[in-house]
Each structure stands twice: as C-alpha cells, then as structure tokens.
Design brief:
Elements lengths: L9 E2 L6 E3 L12 H13 L3 H12 L6 E4 L2 E6 L7 E6 L5 H13 L1 H8 L5 H4 L13 E4 L9 H16 L2 H6 L4 H17 L25 H5 L32 H21 L9 H10 L8 H14 L3 H23 L8 H11 L6 E3 L2 E3 L5 E5 L5 E5 L8 E7 L2 H6 L7
Antiparallel strand pairs: 1-2, 2-3, 3-4, 4-5, 5-6, 7-8, 8-9, 9-10, 10-11
C-alpha cells in the first residue's frame, strides 16, 4: 500500500487540511485520466486558451508555492512577473451528507473501488458513478489577487495544473476537496464493510449455510476479553526510537495580507523542539514561562548581533507586545543566552540569599587581591561602580559591567560556581 508520508504532504490533526510542498521546475502535465479531467473542467470555463498555456508554463517552471487543500478549496501563492507572488484559489462544491451516504454505499458495494483508491487509482466507475466526483464545466471556480480581470488568469491556471499533478499521485486529494479526509473515509468504509459482512443474509451471519466464494474461511480464535481477563498480561512493546532532533519546518510563502513567514517559521521550529524535548525527557521545557520570559526566549533564538531587518522587526514587535523597550529586550536576551531562565532571573529579580556561598564570597575575593565589594541583597559591586557579581538562584555567579556612576548593568562573561574566576574574567576584573 503506497500511502502518502509526511515528506509528501503535511496533514492537520483532523485530516481536513493537507499542505503539499512546492515542486521543483520540470514537473510536467497531468498523466492520469482523472488529472486531465480536472484540467479540462477549467479549460471548459475559459475562453482564452493562451492564459491556460501560460499557466501550464508557470507550473512547469516551479512557480507554484506550497499548495494547501481543504474541503472545497485549493490555495497557493503563485509567482508571476512581479516580485510579490499572487494568491490563487480554486473552489469546488463539497458533497452534501446525502451525497456522501450514497457514495459510501456505492464503494462498500464494490470493494474493488476501495482497493483501487488504496493503490492510488481512481476507477471511472467510481468517479462517474451515482455521485460524480470530478468537476464539470463551470463547477471549478478560479480566483486570484492579480489585477487581471479575466478569470481564470494564468496564476489560477498554474494552480489548476499543479493540483492535477497532485491528483495524479493521490486521488484522495479529490475526495478531500469533496469534503472527507482519507483516514476518516477508510475508517468509515471499514466499519460499513464489517457491518454488512456480519448482517443476516450476507453470508457472514450464522443463520445461513450459503457459501460465499469471496469470504475467507473462518479461523479458530478466542474472545479478547477472555484473554485479557485472566492471567498476567504480556508486556507492552518498547517505545519507538526517538529521533535525534526535530526536523526543519517547511518554507512558508509570503504574500500580501497573509501571515508573516518569519513568525510561522518561529512557531513551527519552536513547537517541534518543544515536542521533541517533551518526548525525550517527559518534561515540557517551557512550562511556567511568563509572557516576558517567553518573548525573551523567542528573541534569543535570533542572532544577537548583525540582526537582519526581519529580525529587527521581530525584536521591535516582541518588545512592544511585552510592554518593554527594545534596549531592555536586548539586555534580557544577553542574560538568557548566558543562563536561560535562571540568567534572566539574575538580571531582573533581586533576592536575599541564605547564609552560605554569598557570605563566603567577599572574604574569598579579598584573599584573591580584589577590593572589598559592596553587598546589596544577592549582588556584590566594585567600589568603582563598573563591575558586579550576582548570585543566581541556580547557585551560579553572573558577571555584570556598567559605565562608572551609571546604573546600566549588562550581563557578560560566563557564569560559574567560583566568584573569583567569574569576577576575574570581567573587563578590568584583575584590578
């Protein structure tokens, strides 16, 4: 059975949305009869074969970005002659509940239809059966954000050709357009087939002696409740091997009025990393993070210097959403990159440490030749006011520097357990 994998398409949790990655240049015209029939439905609507030909050229050149398919709608960004891509759409009417009931009955009455679908084939007797699946002339409605007043334009035509190639590989895409996802369809048809097989008079009930040449011979067995209800149960199988790390997310197209691709990439990348950590350790690494700490964490994933314009815009939006200024966000990012959540707390949360390492730090620093540092809560400050040590709640010492006489402390250096080593590594720390 050649079922699609995640590499071919990404599906939503309910199976009613599938996103297919952009294809490289060179993918030609539809090859199956149903793929060509899909294109013919748009051809019958158009009065300008030239636009359709230009649309086919765009699709062949790889100008169609990732394609999203939901019930009744195909959507993609298509690159044309301008730098900004256009958003093209194709609409088709989903089937009604009555249509689906008749279609499912028809498939259940013809098991070969389901077998063909699982082999990624679309039999004509199914597509043209009591409930036609392929759109006819006028059933496929194109739309696009380009200024061309004629519909279909070349961008919608390119999307039509790209969709036909998707249908070539997987006719379940057509069934999704008509309103039902693959997993839901297979589950429903399986239950329907079993119900019919066990109904009286079908050859599956015990009240008939008729031989069914298509029914496999009965095999001896026991009830599951009898097995599970007595004696020790067998051990569970071992869990599957954890992947080395989360995979990279797909590329997201940018378009006028669409979501920010950088934000989508951030969300997808961090959700994958969070899920991988949860599977590996059983602990959510972001549980309990507040709004500000989460904004700092997101910003810390971008480079700390030489920011691109997109990253600068991200910093500005994160600071604005958290009610802080951009300078404060940069300072917080520096603290996060040194010590994560504990490093951020050392920056922003003074506290009173218990007796122990903090009390021993001052005489230790004096013995190492440093001047007497001024204590204040969890902080030890050089008399010149330009260097400082902060004891974090994680037991590490964090180094800070400032211009003399200014309360403008910036985290720097590498935190550690030894206050002498951390202080000595600060600029001018040997003095």
């Amino acid at each position: 059975m050649n079922r699609p994998t995640a590499a071919r398409a990404r599906a939503s949790a309910d199976g009613l949305r599938r996103t297919f990655p952009a294809q490289p240049a060179g993918d030609g015209a539809a090859t199956t009869w149903w793929g060509r029939a899909w294109v013919s439905a748009l051809t019958a609507r158009s009065g300008d074969p030239g636009r359709l030909a230009r649309g086919s050229d765009l699709a062949t050149r790889g100008s169609v970005d990732a394609v999203t398919v939901t019930p009744g709608l195909v959507l993609a960004y298509v690159h044309g002659s301008r730098p900004r891509p256009y958003r093209a759409r194709l609409r088709v009417r989903p089937l009604t509940d009555d249509d689906w009931e008749r279609l499912l009955d028809h498939i259940a009455d013809h098991p070969a239809h389901l077998a063909a679908l699982l082999d990624r084939e679309l039999p004509p007797a199914l597509a043209e059966g009591p409930v036609p699946l392929l759109p006819g002339a006028g059933d496929l409605i194109p739309d696009c954000t380009c200024p061309d007043p004629v519909r279909p334009c070349k961008h919608a035509a390119a999307l039509c050709h790209r969709t036909a190639r998707l249908l070539d590989h997987d006719p379940f895409v057509l069934l999704l357009l008509r309103g039902r996802g693959e997993d839901d369809l297979i589950d429903t048809l399986t239950r329907l087939s079993v119900t019919r097989a066990c109904a009286p008079g079908t050859g599956g009930a015990p009240d008939t002696d008729a031989e069914d040449p298509y029914r496999p011979p009965a095999l001896p067995g026991v009830r599951a409740r009898d097995v599970l209800g007595a004696g020790p149960r067998p051990p569970l199988p071992p869990p599957p091997r954890l992947l080395d790390g989360p995979a990279a997310p797909p590329s997201y197209p940018s378009g006028h009025g669409g979501p920010d691709p950088l934000a989508l990439d951030q969300l997808a990348t961090q959700a994958a990393a969070r899920a991988h950590a949860l599977l590996a350790t059983g602990r959510d690494p972001l549980a309990g993070l507040g709004h500000w700490a989460d904004a700092v964490r997101i910003a810390a994933a971008r480079p700390g210097s030489g920011l691109t314009s997109a990253a600068r815009d991200l910093y500005a939006r994160l600071a604005r959403a958290a009610g802080r200024d951009v300078t404060g966000l940069h300072r917080a990012v520096a603290a996060w990159q040194l010590g994560g959540e504990a490093g951020l707390a050392a920056l922003e949360e003074p506290w009173d440490p218990p007796a122990g390492p903090f009390d021993r730090a001052r005489p230790t620093l004096l013995a190492a030749g440093h001047p007497r540092l001024r204590p204040e809560r969890n902080r030890l400050t050089h008399p010149a006011g330009d260097r400082q040590l902060r004891l974090g709640r994680d037991g590490l010492w964090y180094g800070y520097i400032s211009d003399p006489g200014r309360d403008d402390w910036w985290p720097t250096g590498v935190p550690g357990l030894d206050p002498v080593a951390v202080f000595g590594a600060l600029p001018g720390g040997g003095a």
